[in-house]
Design a protein that fits this description.
By secondary structure, this protein is α+β, with helices and mostly antiparallel strands. The chain contains 11 helices and 10 strands. Among the domains are: 179 residues, Beta-Lactamase (2-Layer Sandwich), CATH 3.30.450; 137 residues, Histidine kinase-like ATPase, C-terminal domain (Heat Shock Protein 90, 2-Layer Sandwich). Helix 2 runs antiparallel to helix 3, helix 6 runs antiparallel to helix 7 and helix 9 packs parallel to helix 10. It is rod-shaped, with a radius of gyration of 62 Å.
Length: 516
């Protein structure tokens, strides 16, 4: 027995949990309950109010019927009581109690003893105030007692009991003393069954109409909510689900100005911003990949250039400085042998060796300048640029001018080195590719910005056609310039067109530590 009860409890708990989960997941059910539950409460309140109103109306109707009945009975009894016609009194009570709605009519004396009853029933019975049927009246602590009440008889029938006191009128005082106020009591029990049946029918009709109204309301609410709310929200949810799967071009149709329409417009604005940001991110990603490819190409070219430069330096040291030193060693050995036999010839050999040493020294100096000009560290950027231009443009016929501010500041060595290398690359491009006849350089400092402009009057080119991709060397020089400027925190601008020359403008902000 106990396991069976436990199984039923577990099943009930499971069903309750499933119902709770279904309610928590179903917006349609929540909206329906949100409308139906208040409606049920309102209908319940209206039904209870109508029930109480009908009950009050029933009691009023019964009270009116009882009052009319008592008036009729009292009038009929009065005709027989004055001449003391006891058979007439009994006949009147029998005739009245024969009605279907009259359960009983009794005439009591002042002590509560039944004097007359229908068909003589109950005559001589003394009514006890402690009887349950008498308690609704006599349970009241203080008179006056109610003149009519609803009581339940011993056989289960419910009646409306009316008590009509028979007062001592002047025409009755021939038999009764004048000081006696009451002569007796007319007790009438009227059945409430007909009115209760009518009341029950009204109540059933009310409940039927209430249930029908509730069902129709549920259907209308579901249809209306489905059309106006849930379908639109389901469309929003589906759009959001697909939008989250990288379908960023989805949009909602703002078909109204209500909250859901506002939600659709807000979603469209958000989706537009996300799509724009996604497009921007893709463009930035592509630009980053291109930039990384350019950097890899630049790094490869830099490594190759370093190795080429090392090979060139090694070759120059071997072919020139090494040969010069070897020749000097041989010459010194010859001078040593000739010095005692022919001092004059030895002296001429020493002079020749001095010329070779001077030439080796010049070539060594050129190699040092090619690696890094000492003038850049000793005299500054302007002097280094001018000295390099004189060496690079010697015997080229290219005119060179350099304009600088009156008091140019000394930038930090890494920045000066970067500017010098950019100038080297630009000047090399002007000589090798531009076929220029003039190169103009200007250095200015204004509003905390150091500006270097390098311009030539060469053949120029279309900058859009020079796009470094890392796969070939074309444009890598420009990319190297841009990378150097970026490392300095500056900006790089290139202006060129076919037949109009080329101008490179570099702007480097002067911050603390960059300028002395």
């Amino acid at each position: 027995m106990l396991p069976h009860i436990q199984t039923r409890r577990l099943s009930a708990q499971k069903n309750s949990t499933m119902l709770t989960q279904h309610i928590s997941r179903s917006l349609r059910l929540k909206l329906t309950l949100g409308v139906v539950l208040p409606l049920v409460v309102v209908l319940a309140i209206l039904s209870v109010g109508q029930y109480l109103r009908h009950q009050s109306r029933m009691l009023s109707t019964l009270s009116m019927v009882a009052a009319q009945t008592n008036e009729v009975i009292e009038g009929s009894l009065e005709k027989d009581m004055l001449p003391r016609n006891l058979d007439g009194i009994q006949h009147t009570l029998d005739a009245v109690s024969s009605r279907q709605d009259i359960v009983g009519v009794y005439l009591l004396d002042t002590s509560g003893q039944i004097m007359f009853g229908p068909q003589g029933n109950g005559v001589g019975v003394q009514l006890d105030q402690r009887d349950p049927t008498c308690q609704p009246c006599h349970a009241s602590p203080n008179p006056p007692y109610p003149s009519s009440v609803v009581v339940d008889l011993a056989d289960g029938r419910r009646v409306f009991r009316s008590m009509k006191p028979i007062e001592n009128q002047p025409k009755c005082q021939s038999c009764h003393p004048p000081e006696q106020r009451l002569l007796g009591l007319l007790l009438t029990d009227i059945s409430t069954a007909p009115l209760e049946e009518s009341f029950a029918a009204d109540l059933r009709e009310t409940l039927l109409w209430g249930t029908a109204t509730l069902l129709v309301t549920v259907i209308v609410v579901n249809v209306g909510m489905s059309r106006l709310v849930t379908r639109r929200l389901e469309l929003v949810a589906q759009t959001l689900a697909h939008f989250g799967r990288e379908q960023l071009d989805l949009r909602l149709a703002p078909d109204s100005s209500d909250e859901i329409g506002q939600l659709a417009r807000t979603f469209n604005d958000m989706a537009g911003r996300i799509q724009a940001e996604e497009s921007e991110n893709e463009a930035l990603s592509a630009d980053l990949r291109r930039h990384m490819d350019q950097q890899q190409g630049l790094l490869k070219r830099l490594i190759t250039a370093q190795e080429d430069e090392r090979a060139r330096v090694a070759r120059d040291l071997h072919d020139e400085l090494g040969q010069d030193l070897a020749g000097l060693a041989v010459g010194l050995e010859a001078v040593e042998r000739l010095w005692e036999r022919n001092p004059e010839h030895a002296r001429r050999q020493l002079q020749e060796m001095r010329r070779h040493i001077a030439g080796a020294t010049d070539r060594t100096y050129d190699m040092i300048l090619a690696l890094r000009p000492p003038m850049l560290d000793d005299l500054g950027l302007v002097s280094a640029l001018r000295a390099h231009a004189e060496r690079a443009l010697k015997n080229t016929g290219i005119r060179f001018t350099l304009q600088s501010c009156d008091t140019p500041c000394r930038m930090a060595p890494p920045l000066e080195t970067a500017v010098f290398r950019i100038f080297q690359e630009a000047l090399s491009n002007s000589v090798r590719h531009a076929r220029a006849t003039a190169v103009d350089v200007s250095l200015t400092r204004n509003d905390g910005v150091f500006t270097i402009s390098i311009a030539d009057d060469g053949c120029g080119f279309d900058p859009a056609t020079i796009i470094p991709d890392g796969a070939q060397a074309r444009g890598m020089g420009l990319l190297g310039m841009q990378e150097r400027v970026a490392q300095c925190g500056g900006t790089f601008a290139l202006e060129s067109a076919p037949g109009r020359g080329t101008r490179i403008t570099i702007r480097i902000p002067i911050v603390e530590g960059n300028c002395d």
